[in-house]
Amino acid sequence: MFESCVRASPVYALFGKTGLEATTLPAPDHALLGGSIGYHMRSGKHDLAVSDWQHYTDFTDRHWKR
């Protein structure tokens, strides 16, 4: 998943956007939300937690100017 985000970043650059803000895999629980592509991997079991939703809403708020 992370590698796909990295590989998609040059396409975003063609349209004047910043893709993913890193090229090396971040540690779990460290979200990358600054570019037009966001990435987040939480430690723990496969599930949705409140912290996941917080990252998702932070990302959409940033890009939808809320």
Query: What fraction, in percent, of the residue positions are helical?
Result: 40-55%
Number of domains: 1
Multimeric state: single chain
Question: Largest sheet, if any?
Answer: none
Tell me the fraction of residues in β-strands, as a range: under 5%
Q: Return the string of H and E elements.
A: HH
Q: Mean pLDDT, rounded to whole units?
A: 92
List keywords for this structure.
mainly alpha; 66 residues
What does this structure look like?
The termini are far apart. The mean pLDDT is 92. This protein has 66 residues and is mainly α. Helices cover 41% and strands 0% of the residues. The radius of gyration is 12 Å and the shape is globular. The protein has one domain (2-63).
Task: Itemize the secondary structure elements and their pairings.
Layout: H1 2-14, H2 50-63
Offer a concise description of the structure:
By secondary structure, the chain is mostly helical. The chain has helices at 2-14, 50-63.
